[in-house]
Amino acid sequence: MSVPDEKGESRVALGRRGEDLAVEHLRRQGLVILERNWRCREGELDILATDGRTLVVCEVKTRSGRGYGIPTEAVTQDKRNRIRRLTLRWLASRRVAWCPLRFDVIAIECSPKEPPRLRHVVGAF
């Protein structure tokens, strides 16, 4: 069971809200969303998008505060390596031999007293 934050929102609901905000942001940037929450045995990719030339793999980190640090700090080297491996699995599952790749991070802070703040790190790793 997910514990509510200060706003009464569960961790799952907070993460979903963050991903919804990230998708809206990416669409405003002109990207086409290919898939959300793609899963395989090894893990999950949050958002896969394209600008028509490049596959953009976007990791979304949403926090209700800074008690656990800045959201981008949660994308550790291990997490980056896992995202790269999962991207290769996604490409193979879609029978894509090769395409340019970009790995972005969208960090969202949803403080109960302020509007959400979004930071998009393009080419984060």
From TrEMBL:
<dbReference type="Pfam" id="PF02021">
    <property type="entry name" value="UPF0102"/>
</dbReference>
<dbReference type="InterPro" id="IPR003509">
    <property type="entry name" value="UPF0102_YraN-like"/>
</dbReference>
<dbReference type="InterPro" id="IPR011335">
    <property type="entry name" value="Restrct_endonuc-II-like"/>
</dbReference>
<dbReference type="InterPro" id="IPR011856">
    <property type="entry name" value="tRNA_endonuc-like_dom_sf"/>
</dbReference>
<comment type="similarity">
    <text>Belongs to the UPF0102 family.</text>
</comment>
<dbReference type="GO" id="GO:0003676">
    <property type="term" value="F:nucleic acid binding"/>
</dbReference>
<protein>
    <recommendedName>
        <fullName>UPF0102 protein MINT15_06770</fullName>
    </recommendedName>
</protein>
